Amino acid sequence: MPVRRVAIDARAGKEMRHALRWYMGQNPTAAQRFQTAVDDVVQKVGGAAEQGVLYRHRFRWIRLHKFPYLVYYEIRDPQPVLIYALAHAHRRPGYWLRRTRP
């Protein structure tokens, strides 16, 4: 299985930075674990995007290990896999769908 390039929507990048700042304010060690969990998911998406759980027939998601966040993305061959959101698992489900094109 080929390694795919991964692109991150600017709003998803902002969500990642916001969550990281929040964890940094709580506990620097937790912030480091959070960053590692995000990096692991991004790497997994690039290496095995099909492993994500199918969502609405077009998108997929993977949950961060030990954190209540989901990474939503779309496999867009031959373009890079696009990460649309780092969404808290218990807040505002589906808000990020307006970022996608039909």
Write a structural description.
By secondary structure, the chain is α+β, with helices and mostly antiparallel strands. It has one domain: YaeB-like fold (2-Layer Sandwich), CATH 3.30.2310.20. Strands 1-5-4-3-2 form a five-stranded mixed beta sheet. Strand 3 and strand 4 form a beta hairpin. The N and C termini lie far apart (27 Å). The relative contact order is 0.21.
Task: Give the H and E element order.
Answer: EHHEEEE
- Order of the strands making up the biggest sheet: 1-5-4-3-2
User: What best-fitting shape do the alpha-carbon axes yield?
Assistant: globular
The number of strands is 5
Tell me what the CATH architecture is: 2-Layer Sandwich
* Number of alpha- plus pi-helical segments: 2
Helix content, binned percent: 25-40%
* Portion in beta strands: 15-25%
Mean pLDDT, to the nearest integer, reads 94
CATH topology: YaeB-like fold
| Main beta sheet strand tally, sense and closure | 5 strands, mixed
Q: What's the domain count?
A: 1
Oligomer description: single chain
CA-based gyration radius: 13 Å
Specify the CATH homologous superfamily: RelE-like
Distance between the termini: 27 Å
Q: What CATH first level would be assigned?
A: Alpha Beta
